[in-house]
Amino acid sequence: MNSKPVPALCLPLSPLDLAAAVEDFVAQGGVIAIIPQGETAEPVETVTPENLTVTAPEKLQLLRLLAAKGAGVSSLQYSLKMNRKDIRQLAQQHDIKINFSRPIQAQRNGPDTPLRDIDDVTAGHAMHYSSLGYSTAEIARILGLSVREVLDIGKAYRFEFSNHQV
After folding, report:
1. Distance CA 87, CA 23 (A)
2. pLDDT of 90 over the 70 cut
3. Which of 17, 28, 150, 163 is the most exposed place for a label (fewest CB within 10 A)?
């Protein structure tokens, strides 16, 4: 029922198998460095955070380049390894315009905005169409109203409209 896969058994390799593998590697163009007995290999230079530090002029140049390409604040944060406040401050100091990914949206009608007065006849028609099974969008289209206005009718008359077709 619950059978677990059996791992492949590792057979001990003989020195002949190792020699054959080395010969295959060299035949395919591989190079094996020979290190004399008692010595160690050359140290490999590792990348440390100290090696990756970028100076302020380099960051400024990179900021100008990325901002010219249209990079947003989040991508600048990643590339420059700086926080939003520092990026905006650096951009303001050097008159660099940063694109923002969120478009400026028009204000929605708030609760202070007076809504269009809907007469009782229109509200009655809306409730009648709703009882026949029309959706809110269909009622709005038939009566020449917006969906928001139809929903506001329901709120004003304490009537719930269906949002889907029945």
Report:
1. 55
2. yes
3. 28
